[in-house]
Amino acid sequence: MTVHLAIFRQPYLDLLLSGEKTADARLSKNRIVPFGQVEKGDTVLLKLASGPVLGRAIVDEVQFFPDLTPDAIDALRSRYNSQLCFSDDFWKQYRDAQYGTLISFKNVEGVQPIYIWSKGRSGWQVLNDWEEQQIQSRLFEWRSIRPTTMLTSIVSYPDRGPYGDHKYPGNCSGHLIKELVTHFDAKRVLDPAAGSGTTGDVCRDLGVDCIQRDLRDGFDVLTSDIPSGFDFVFFHPPYWDIIKYSDDPRDLSNISKYEDFIESLAQACKRLFNALEPNGGHLAVLLGDVRKRGKYYFIFRDLISRLGDPDYPIVIKAQHNVTSFGRRYSIEYFIPLAHEYVLIWRVGGPGRRAREQELFLDAPIDLGELSQKSSFPECTGSTP
């Protein structure tokens, strides 16, 4: 089977990875790839325009349309656009196309970002044997480093899953929340900055009780009464003022001075510790670094200095579809930020019995040995 590299602009790649878009069409005036060169069962690598490969899929069905006319294109639009999710502008742009390839996908999955060459300006390329081997090697490396049967200190979720609203600013992957809730065996969850409701969607999927609060509904994590009796709190605050979420002066993203922001964030976390009383539980805080006017602000470090060390290893979460990936920078040796941190504190109550997976993580993991195991202790985390 052949391996293809397909380049997508947003929002089409996000729609494909989330499952809303299940097919793609490539239209052209000339007979160019993928016309006549893609078959059922082929593998397609899904690459962001001016960015990395973020997913892959298998060709389920393919149809070729030679000698297209505007009327034929209108018919394609009427019949298939519910699967293609193309905008009106797309159909106007390709109204005079003469060749068309319609591809439906199955087994669509996200992968860790893979930066790959792109030959020329073509939006579809057929990889040769050497190029295919390089990609497969990169995929194997990541699966060895990141075992999918347990929560580890490195996580990556290229797609957000069917949780929350992917258009909501700062929305994180529901797969992260799902792994955390499952790993810590949470029964009652609080999200004090619910945003588009990702945590609630995840908990409904898991059958876990969840209470969501948000500033948009009048809840202020610094002053409002916080209910108690939870065993897990997931808190995804603003990363200072990198995104302005509202004009509300109580919004943490509206605090102008960094020191004031950090103090307020620490105070919010201390109040959330109380939500885990009287029986105890875990507070997980998702944070990212900020670069502003040439200076880096390490929010995770400054929060730890005020709250004390977390009770678990800091989880590094890879970021995907970041706008900085596709930019060129004039700053010498500039390194774009492409990760976030999950800080986890255990609060009050008797310590929970260590799981077998946690015993594995007490010592360095032999990646070669781990990747060869055919079975693991009972899995408590979901597959990302």
Describe this structure in words.
About 25% of the residues lie in helices and about 25% in strands. It has helices at about 10-20, 70-85, 90-95, 130-145, 175-185, 200-205, 260-275, 300-305, 355-360, 365-370, and strands at about 5-10, 25-30, 45-50, 55-65, 100-115, 125, 155, 190, 210, 230-235, 280-290, 290, 295, 315-320, 340-345. Mean pLDDT is about 85; it is low at about 350-384. The strands form three sheets. Strands 7-14-15-11-10-8-9 form a seven-stranded mixed β-sheet, with helices on both faces. It has a six-stranded mixed β-sheet with strand order 2-5-4-3-1-6. The longest helix has 17 residues, at about 130-145. The protein has two domains: about 5-130, Archaeosine Trna-guanine Transglycosylase, Chain: A, domain 4, CATH 2.30.130; about 155-370, 3-Layer(aba) Sandwich (Rossmann fold), CATH 3.40.50.150.
The fraction of residues in strands falls at: 15-25%
Secondary structural class: alpha/beta
Determine the N-to-C terminus distance: 26 Å
The percent range for helix content is: 25-40%
Under the CATH scheme, the architecture of the largest domain is: 3-Layer(aba) Sandwich
Under CATH, the topology of the largest domain can be stated as: Rossmann fold
Major beta sheet summary: 7 strands, mixed
What count of helical segments does DSSP give? Answer: 10
